[in-house]
Structure to design on (749 residues):
């Protein structure tokens, strides 16, 4: 935990922006540079900054510790699940064309869901790693 | 000209050898992981360097641009970076456990303690 | 419809089960999920092998992107066989793992253990089935990273140092592989293994391709514990939990040997690897050094897990020896030994797991007189040991026989003699255990109320022992597949 008032105020100001930017990178990733990996890390960095300035206990108040493990799994399920949906329609694994009537719409939905899955998993994993290291001495 | 044209590769080789040397020669477990990171980073630069196309722009569709850099190595390296992050996290986690069990992160000291068991 | 999707199910079923185990906090449920996933995987592997033997190589395009652009899964006889080994060992091992893991790992970590186990299985299967060089690297790292964590779960604090050592050496090996793949991509612009094989001859005379070959050989050599790059292996197997040691000893090095086969024979080709590059001599010398030195070191070990680990280094030597012959018979011997060694090492480590379950230690001195306290366990160990030595009617004999045959065909009779010498050394280290267990004058003090291991441990162990004998007598399946795989590997590249 850091007592420096400048840091505390500034991080309070920029953490929402970091999270917002992460969401932008996540959801604009279909059109411009970006995607799940980058967005996940950005999103996690918001939490990590919060933990560094206000202490890990403050993070536990925002999101309890038990929530991260299911989140890690959720992202993976989403990714693998999308692949299995195309299998159900008799198409090869991860063939997004199967997800909608129009192949192009299907591709769009597929990429969106897969990137979302990656984003959730990466963010959750990064936060878990940080909390595991930071919480070691408590 | 050729020597300078291959500037990136000189950097890659230098970083690679530095990292590899640290992995081998350092007896501190954390420093070894730093060396490993350097070693892996040099390979990332190798991949990124080979993807560059002279005069090519970033691989994003845009009007009036016909020459793009090769995006594939970037994607590969994004994945390799994830692998590297995972390796580093796991390695450091093990170092934390070693430190808790032995009270040191120096290799010689750990060997000494194990032999006296 | 399912038949066409088998290659992808092979990898995604365990991959899907891994996060499921992560969510389940209950170790028993996690074990059940793992068991079901593993059995499905095994069934898939059997079906795949039948399909491949029936219709020839299969190709599966991910997301319907055709081969050189998209990621391709390619199933040929050789990797269908390795898939069968990995998933088969896993299917037999899991019933064993339940009690063994419950005894050796704290209960709150059991579901994490199974998550890691499934990831490791996914990685090993993925390495085997994929037809894409970079995909291969990623799967290698998935299996390696989960292996490091699995080893660190061992109860001794030396498990941490063993895991750390393996992590450093394994990552260096993986990075070498990455460099090699990068250099190949630089020269050919493709990552698909079949496409690489087609394009490499055009640029084979360049220094880049040669250094790619060197990087790949050394990197894979680290992963498969080729002498003198084997230093991580003994500690890793010794301090890992028993079930992990059994699984790794039976599968991990096998998959690495397969990758070596894949790169040497079907990517670079026999002509490049053995004529333009001196691979044959290098592998031959290292393999012989591995067989002799590791066997001798094994004789002096007090910890039986460590003894078997050194013996694994020696056995890897036999497999590499077969590769160095660069002939159909030599390759047949190697591929046969992949299968046979998985059976015998799996069985031996599982027998030691039974001992560990009752005694909590596998030191030789603690085993005195154990042959009468745990007759079934020690009988299993003895039969497994006989197989390791290469006594007729066991699988060990079959692969040694082909190895000697391969050496004779080449006219390398000193090599054949060295193979036999390696077997004699194996007799010595197995005999030390037999002597302690059956012929020692006094019983070790810790055996007061030791009973036979429970059936849940014994049945899987004996299943593998039975396989050791069965495939030692009826060799039509193993030799048939191995020979076909070998002919394809040598033939494709010429």
């Amino acid at each position: 935990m850091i007592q420096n008032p400048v840091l505390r105020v500034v991080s309070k100001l920029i953490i929402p922006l970091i999270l917002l930017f992460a969401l932008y990178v996540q959801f604009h990733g279909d059109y411009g540079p970006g995607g799940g990996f980058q967005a996940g890390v950005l999103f996690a960095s918001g939490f990590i900054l919060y933990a560094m300035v206000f202490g890990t206990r403050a993070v536990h108040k925002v999101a309890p510790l038990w929530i991260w493990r299911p989140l890690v799994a959720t992202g993976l399920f989403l990714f693998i699940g999308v692949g299995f949906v195309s299998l159900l329609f008799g198409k090869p694994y991860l063939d997004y064309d199967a997800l909608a009537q129009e192949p192009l719409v299907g591709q769009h939905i597929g990429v969106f869901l897969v990137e979302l899955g990656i984003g959730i998993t990466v963010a959750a994993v990064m936060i878990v790693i940080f909390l595991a290291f930071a919480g070691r001495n408590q | 000209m050729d020597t300078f044209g291959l500037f990136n590769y000189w950097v890659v080789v230098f970083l690679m050898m530095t990292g590899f040397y640290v992995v081998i020669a350092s007896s501190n477990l954390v420093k070894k992981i730093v060396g490993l990171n350097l070693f892996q980073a040099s390979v990332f630069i190798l991949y990124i360097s080979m993807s560059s196309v002279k005069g090519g722009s970033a691989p994003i569709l845009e009007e009036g641009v016909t020459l793009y850099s090769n995006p594939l190595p970037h994607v590969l390296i994004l994945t390799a970076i994830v692998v590297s992050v995972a390796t580093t996290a796991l390695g450091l986690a093990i170092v934390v456990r070693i430190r808790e069990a032995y009270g040191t992160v120096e290799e010689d000291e750990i060997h000494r303690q194990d032999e006296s068991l | 419809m399912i038949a066409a999707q088998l290659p992808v199910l092979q990898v995604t079923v365990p991959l899907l089960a891994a996060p499921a185990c992560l969510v389940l906090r209950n170790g028993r449920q996690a074990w059940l999920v793992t068991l079901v996933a593993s059995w499905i995987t095994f069934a898939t592997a059997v079906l795949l092998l039948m399909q491949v033997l029936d219709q020839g190589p299969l190709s599966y395009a991910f997301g319907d992107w055709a081969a050189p652009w998209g990621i391709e899964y390619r199933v040929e006889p050789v990797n269908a066989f390795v898939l069968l080994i990995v998933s088969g060992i896993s299917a037999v091992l899991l019933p064993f793992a339940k009690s063994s893991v419950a005894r050796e790992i704290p209960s709150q970590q059991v579901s994490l253990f199974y998550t890691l186990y499934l990831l490791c299985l996914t990685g090993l299967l993925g390495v085997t089935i994929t037809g894409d060089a970079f995909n291969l690297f990623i799967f290698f790292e998935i299996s390696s990273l989960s292996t490091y964590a699995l080893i660190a779960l061992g109860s001794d604090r030396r498990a941490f140092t063993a895991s750390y050592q393996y992590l450093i050496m394994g990552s260096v090996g993986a990075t070498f592989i990455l460099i090699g793949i990068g250099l190949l991509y630089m020269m050919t612009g493709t990552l698909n293994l079949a496409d690489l094989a087609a394009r490499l001859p055009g640029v084979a005379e360049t220094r880049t391709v040669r250094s790619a070959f060197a990087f790949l050989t050394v990197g894979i050599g680290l992963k498969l514990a080729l002498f003198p790059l084997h230093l991580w292996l003994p500690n890793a197997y010794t301090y890992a939990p028993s079930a992990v040691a059994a699984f790794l000893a039976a599968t991990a090095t096998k998959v690495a040997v397969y990758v070596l086969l894949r790169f040497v024979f079907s990517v670079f080709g026999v002509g490049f690897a053995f004529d333009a590059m001196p691979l044959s001599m290098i592998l031959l010398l290292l393999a012989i050094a591995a067989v002799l030195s590791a066997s001798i070191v094994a004789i002096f070990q007090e910890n039986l897990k460590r003894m078997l680990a050194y013996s694994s280094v020696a056995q890897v030597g036999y497999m590499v020896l077969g590769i160095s012959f660069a002939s159909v018979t030599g390759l047949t011997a190697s591929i046969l030994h992949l299968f046979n060694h998985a059976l015998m090492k799996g069985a031996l480590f599982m027998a030691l797991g039974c001992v560990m379950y009752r005694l909590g230690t596998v030191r030789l001195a603690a085993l005195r007189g154990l042959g009468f306290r745990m007759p079934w366990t020690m009988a299993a160990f003895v039969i497994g040991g006989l197989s390791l030595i290469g006594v007729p009617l066991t699988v060990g004999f079959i692969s040694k026989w082909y190895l000697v045959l391969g050496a004779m065909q080449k006219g390398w009779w000193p090599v054949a003699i060295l193979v036999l010498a390696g077997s004699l050394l194996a007799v010595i280290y197995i005999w030390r255990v037999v002597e302690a267990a059956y012929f020692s004058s006094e019983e070790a003090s810790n055996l007061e109320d030791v009973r036979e291991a429970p059936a849940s441990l014994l049945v899987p162990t004996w299943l593998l022992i039975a396989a050791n004998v069965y495939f030692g007598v009826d060799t039509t399946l193993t030799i048939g597949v191995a020979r076909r795989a070998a002919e394809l590997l040598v033939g494709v590249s010429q």
Q: What stands out?
A: Chain B has five helices and no strands. Chain B has a mean pLDDT of 86. Chain B has one domain: 2-115.
